[in-house]
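Assemble and predict.
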Amino acid sequence: MGTELGKYKLCVSARSADKEILKKAQDGGIVTQLFKYALEEGIIDGAIVSGPSDEPWRPRPFVATTVDDLMKSRGTRYNISPNVSFIKEATRSYGLDRIGIVGTPCQMQAVRKGQLYPVGLRDVPDKIALAIGIFCMENFPYQSIKQLVEDHAAMKLEAVKKMEIGKGKFWVYGERGQVVQLPLKVTHNYEQPGCHVCLDYVANLADVSTGSVGSPDGWSTVFVRTKNGDDIWSKAIAAGCFETKPIEQVKPGLELVSKLANEKITKNQKTVEERAKFGVNKALRNPYISPK
Amino acid sequence: MPEEKPVPASADVKNKVETLKKEDKPVADKIKAGHVHMSGCTGCEVAIADNYGGLLTVLDKYVDWVYDLTLADVRHIPKMDVALVEGSICIQDKISVDEIKETREKSAVVVALGGCACYGNITRFGRGGQPNQPQHESYVPIGDIIKVDAYIPGCAPTPQLIRNVVVMAYLLLKGTKEQQELAKKYLTPLMQLADRGTEACGCDLMYHIINQGLCMGCGSCAAACPVRAITHEYGKPNVNREMCIKCGACYAQCPRSFFNFDVMNEFEGIMELIDGALK
Ligand SMILES: Cc1cc2nc3c(=O)[nH]c(=O)nc-3n(C[C@H](O)[C@H](O)[C@H](O)COP(=O)(O)OP(=O)(O)OC[C@H]3O[C@@H](n4cnc5c(N)ncnc54)[C@H](O)[C@@H]3O)c2cc1C
Ligand code: SF4
Ligand code: SF4
Ligand code: SF4
């Protein structure tokens, strides 16, 4: 295992000790539980999360300042939620001095760029108190999810209880108990193009990052990465917020995480290279080299 | 930071010499920097000052503030290591044109500070006819008149980006070999932005991010826009082009304009370094 998992201080399999959180959490309820703990302890004043909107399964970023708000954000909505769009507003209209934020690996990249190069993010850099990253292989435009669920899985979006990507399939669970699985070959066509140059699977730049891969159903794999993340995570453990198991003792374990991370990075690195000779002596832009 | 009351940079020479004598580091270790004021609103200058205590530490340890129309009692542009230029250049104003050229001659490094100096920003909309000097109608970014080494875009630029750049500029000129390497890597994209050109618009998100298949819907652009011209429609930015003042913040903030892994991967250490430098 090399750099594909980023820097981390520890990795465990975990789930929230709170049954209420687990009822609607996507996996082990790590995100909601850790924010809840941080909010109650005054480590954060609020968190930018992604919640439901006026259209079914279309996420909308919002600033959660209560545990009730956090509970509304549980679960994964597999389409774009521009969480970072609230990062300055959170310090202004919402008055947060200590911001929590959850997001995909690219959104964690955005947060760190915002701290190192805060071009338009006045007073934000010193107010990021807890950045939680979620693993991510790809994301979709809303219309893609609509077509996948309604055209391919032949279900109504309103009638879907949960969506999940795992075990090599896209799973759609209906409110009435029906389960439809689509091969990833079908979903690949519908991914947002920006994901194809993405070189991070497990949110390397988060304070704490988490996802389902590597752990048994209902549990999450957790990487604790920064000093700040380590500090908050160990306090939350001491407070009894999580059940944990050593990652070496769960199946399928870290090896699968590594394998998927390497697959993603290799594939997308290739795309980045192909972009360099996309046209006839014309390249598409490469943001990893320069803003030109 | 000394415990005593901060001494304004404009204090008389005797005072200044005394303060310097008390410092641990001789003045020779400091870099010489200044603020050159062209057609800008002084918002950039205020952003420098908004570093509060951090600014005093910078002046105390790293920077000799040798020129600043508002803060330093110096009438003519002196020799400087780093000139931070605020504002665009009115090409009908001979003094401005002469002074920006003089700034270039006398400074090792010229940094365009803020949207107006980098891209023209709101002054792009100027068309003359205003009282006192109605014939002053053409305002151009400083990069249209002189070669610029690095950009700090934003309207106003943020105190924190100014702070980060100042610390890095110091390390580049006075740091250890390792620190110089880091500072060079950090400053590179800001130099590349300067190289890239003098035009900016919310449209850059269309031309250079979305049209290039790079947008992933993070929302940074909307957060960065000072006039709230950007909203997200189903995850992708939509620019209200009537509202856009052409500051360039959205594009520079976007993780898909530039993302230098060699720097970003070290974010924790760099934040600590900057924090430590300002204590
Ligand atoms: C697009 C996408 C792709 C993913 N791909 C993988 C994968 O390949 N492998 C893997 O192991 N895990 C993946 N995940 C992560 C996984 O689905 C869970 O989100 C994660 O394990 C957290 O679960 P939890 O029970 O700890 O969180 P919960 O307590 O259920 O909370 C979920 C949190 O995720 C946030 N969220 C929901 N949807 C979005 C969104 N669209 N954008 C940003 N934030 C959102 C909510 O705000 C909420 O705070 C992906 C998530 C997303 C959004
Ligand atoms: S694959 Fe990468 S770019 Fe796409 S949503 Fe996930 S983290 Fe962002
Ligand atoms: S900042 Fe860039 S990648 Fe993020 S939403 Fe805006 S244009 Fe897209
Ligand atoms: S859209 Fe906003 S941030 Fe972008 S250039 Fe215009 S004013 Fe600046």
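Chain B has two domains: 31-199+260-277, 204-253.
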